[in-house]
TrEMBL record:
Secretion signal span: 1-25
InterPro entries named in the record: Peptidase_C11 (IPR005077)
Residue ranges of the TM segments: none
Organism, scientific name: Fistulifera solaris (Oleaginous diatom)
Name under which the protein is recorded: Uncharacterized protein
Biased amino acid composition, Low complexity: 783-793
Region (Disordered): 744-793
Family matches, as Pfam families: Peptidase_C11
Gene3D superfamilies: 3.40.50.11970
Top-level taxon: Eukaryota
Length: 819
């Protein structure tokens, strides 16, 4: 894309004053704050934090800011002027300027002063706009004698798809986000156009989510010495600008940003999650990428010829830490932004690599190169142990479902040019069936071939067992080598509620149930299509309500997962619902909800029993999840949480702050089968429960022990735990096992033999969707989204009221709504 030269820059701006008095400078810090979207509130905060930082007053620092405000013209717009920003005459801004501003710090006045403003609405996703700002700022910095240059871009991040998201109403039909290559072109052009500017930036930073990735750094490594970004989505508050201290060079400023972002809570009582940030020496990126590429050339050969290696690779990918990526759907339980260091560790553990093999030599070289390129990297409290960078690696079933070859094979989006062997590995991994034979000289000394044999065709779970112990419920099994993935869910069997009530139910659920099975073009459809399964032990109508899922681990030919015997409820003094809690690495939980903005309010009548996610979306709802940490519970109540909602533009989760207002309603997952009808989603739960989302919201999450929960409901004497195993090479290949555990069995006493289910004869049923976003904060996993989202945690204080909405109201609510 051709960019206009420096002489054309001023045509888009009305100059307020020419550059300020030239003073000796060292570091030129340029901030491109693209706030013409939902993140305006947070980016305005960032701007004000920078103004109040100690660093901005450092005489050797020259600061330039491009700020594009949101101007939707709706009630959601912020109407106040930027705080502590001054006009050239020294007076504070009297009104909000809804276009773009160029600002610089005046060291003599100790004020942030508007230097220029745009006369027309600018598209901040256009590379010309970025070029104009950089050329304008760098011309001044060169004149001041700056010797080091750093650029920080702040807005939504979408990994390999780019950065930005200018949502101006006049451009709603265009594709949002600026491609990474366009940003590279703008930076290179500005560096080349300004006489005296360096050949490269000293630091390029993204205060945005998902931008610390192989697929992005492959684009940026040639234009900067150091590169700083987050591999997961970021909390909306972004970096801690107010803690920035004076430094002598650009890298020191970057390290300062890095450390403060991870260490500071930024006005909250707890750390928002996920928080990951890393600084990379860009010159060392290509040596790592070459080592990675060489490793996967060898691994491509191994997975094509050794079933043992192929299956270990599949299970390693499943067990590796990953964050919600830009290609993931909002319901994914297999996020695609895979942590590279976690893969090294997981594959090593599961494979037990032959120390004399070529794979070991190449793996060691790749690990060394990976570690060497980081100047600094870390994670905030509550975030899983991420290693600094992700690479796009969707799970195989995701690839098959959405034909991601369009993305993987696109030269403009993926690192195909610099890592052709990696792309070829993915193609082999996705498109070729697992080899039939296990090599006698497998590079993986750990064999996943079980000594047990399947007792029937199609068996994947060879000796499944679900047993209650004092520490938790353990679900385990030896696995057939064909087993690629396993999901464990827990819940309660409410079939007893159906007796004598079928006529009423058949009148209540037909239209809603049919919506679950209609051919709808929606990301959630693949998970719930053909959801009805008639297990051989299920001879009639039945009703299973899921309470959550549990992460497990592969250990050689075995699989083990442990449920902590906890159920979660969302409620306040007026109402409450059992909710579905997704398990995440790092111990956090994500609770699926639908969010309705202030402009699309709903009532209980809009979401009757059996309402689907599709119906909620038709009403204006947005899929999202609350992230909570069980360790934050006080008297079994968690009152700190963050709401992440799915952004269809960036295809990532972003934080929705409490000030945005609106409503949330829980999303439950079930298998309610009545005749030929099936209900798998319960938006609003049993009572069409809706909670206000706002700064004065008064609700929380109650954590309840399973034994206490079931003891409070008459006729409910057990919980149900189930395992589902899948073979990715055979369509419809699923094995199923479940057990019902009574109160005494949950506590670890001798349990009666659980009931095992035979392999399903129909298409496989996906486990209830899990919202993974970040994944360690929660999957928090979050989304999110750069975005990230983040707002101050909302607190709900109930005191003794909390027991008003516990399981005491659960059974009566179910009975009332169903019957």
């Amino acid at each position: 894309m051709k960019l206009f030269g420096v002489s054309s820059i001023l045509t888009s701006f009305a100059l307020q004053s020419i550059w300020l008095e030239v003073a000796k400078a060292n570091v030129c810090m340029m901030l491109y704050q693209m706030a013409d979207n939902y993140l305006e509130y947070f980016i305005r905060q960032d701007n004000n934090e920078l103004i109040n930082s100690a660093a901005i007053r450092e005489p050797t620092l020259t600061t330039w800011v491009y700020f594009d405000s949101r101007n939707y013209g709706t009630a959601e717009d912020i109407t106040l002027p930027l705080e502590e920003v001054f006009a050239p005459d020294g007076t504070p801004l009297a009104a909000k300027f809804e276009g773009s501003l160029l600002m610089t710090w005046d060291h003599a006045r100790e004020q942030m002063v508007v230097n220029a403003s745009s006369t027309v609405e600018l598209n901040s996703d256009h590379p010309q706009t970025l070029f104009n700002f950089l050329a304008y700022a760098m011309t001044d910095c060169v004149a001041r004698g700056s010797t080091e240059y750093m650029l920080i871009l702040s807005s939504h991040g979408s990994g390999m798809f780019g950065f930005g998201g200018d949502e101006n109403v006049a451009r709603r039909r265009r594709r949002l986000l600026q491609a990474n290559q366009n940003i590279v072109n703008a930076v290179q052009s500005a560096l080349g156009a300004v006489e005296g500017a360096p050949a490269k930036l000293d630091v390029l930073g993204f205060d945005a989510g998902l931008m610390q990735a192989v697929d992005t750094l492959d684009e940026y490594h040639n234009i900067t010495k150091y590169y700083m970004a987050s591999q997961a989505v970021e909390p909306g508050h972004g970096w801690a600008y107010n803690f920035l201290e004076p430094a002598t060079n650009a890298l020191e400023y970057a390290i300062n940003f890095h450390d403060n972002f991870l260490q500071q809570t930024q006005g909250s009582d707890v750390h928002m999650t996920p928080k990951t940030l890393a600084i990379v020496d860009a010159d060392l990126f290509i040596p790592f990428l070459n080592a990675w590429d060489a490793l996967f050339l060898e691994l491509s050969i191994k997975i094509a010829n050794d079933k043992n290696v192929h299956t270990i690779m599949q299970r390693s990918r499943l067990n590796t830490l990953a964050f919600m990526g830009a290609i993931d759907t909002s319901d994914t339980n297999t996020p695609s932004a895979m942590d590279i260091g976690s893969f090294f560790e997981t594959f090593r553990t599961m494979c037990s690599i032959d120390p004399n093999s070529e794979v070991e030599t190449l793996m060691a070289a790749a690990e060394t190169a990976y570690t060497a390129m980081f100047v600094s990297r870390g994670n905030g409290p509550g975030t899983p142990p991420a290693s600094g960078m992700h690479i796009l690696w969707p799970q195989r079933q995701v690839y098959e479902r959405y034909d991601l070859s369009v993305i993987i094979e696109s030269d403009s989006l993926a690192a195909t040019g610099d890592a052709p062997n990696w792309i070829n590995f993915l193609m082999t991994f996705y498109q070729a069936a697992a080899p039939e034979a296990v090599s006698e000289k497998s590079v993986c000394l750990q064999s996943i071939v079980s000594d047990l044999e399947a007792t029937a065709d199609g068996r994947l779970l060879l000796n499944p067992a679900i047993v209650g112990t004092d520490s938790g419920v353990i679900a385990s099994s030896a696995l057939a080598i064909r087993t690629d993935r396993i999901y464990v869910n827990y819940g309660i069997d409410l079939t007893f509620l159906l007796k004598g009530r079928l006529r009423h139910l058949k009148k209540t659920i037909p239209s809603m149930a049919s919506a679950n099975r209609t051919a709808i073009n929606h990301p959630l459809k693949p998970n719930w299509e053909n959801a009805q399964r008639r297990l051989q032990t299920e001879t009639g109508d039945y009703f299973i309500l899921f309470g959550g899922n549990v992460l497990g681990a592969f250990e050689g030919p075995e699989f083990v997962a442990t449920w902590d015997k906890k159920f979660y409820f969302l409620g306040n003094s007026d109402s409450g619902e059992l909710v579905y809690a997704t398990d995440s690495k790092g111990g956090l939980k994500s609770i699926p909800v639908m969010y309705f903005a202030r402009s699309t309010p709903i009532t209980a009548a809009d979401i009757p029993l059996g309402s689907t996610i599709e119906r909620a979306m038709f009403l204006g709802g947005i899929f999202g999840f609350l992230t909570v940490s069980p360790s934050d519970a006080i008297l079994s109540v968690i009152s700190s949480y963050v709401l992440y909602t799915f952004d269809p533009v960036t295809r990532a989760f972003r934080e929705t702050p409490t000030w945005a207002g609106g409503q949330i309603t829980p999303v439950l997952f079930s298998e309610l089968v009545v005749g030929d009808k099936v209900v798998t989603q319960l938006v609003g739960g049993f009572r069409s429960t809706i909670f206000p989302w706002g700064e004065d919201s008064d609700f929380g999450v109650l954590v309840m022990d399973a034994v206490k929960f079931i003891s409070r409901i008459d006729a409910l004497d057990s919980v149900k735990v189930e395992m589902r195993a899948y073979d990715n090479d055979v369509r419809g290949a699923v094995d199923f096992f479940s057990a019902s555990l009574t109160s005494s069995e949950l506590g670890g006493s001798t349990a009666k033999p659980p009931t095992a289910e035979s392999p399903s004869t129909g298409p496989p049923t996906a486990s209830p969707p899990t919202a993974n976003a970040p994944t360690a904060g929660p999957p928090t996993d979050a989304p999110p989204v750069g975005d990230a989202p983040a707002a101050e945690p909302t607190s709900g204080s109930f005191g003794s009221r909390v027991m008003l909405w516990t399981a005491l109201v659960f059974a009566p609510a179910v009975m009332f709504v169903l019957f």
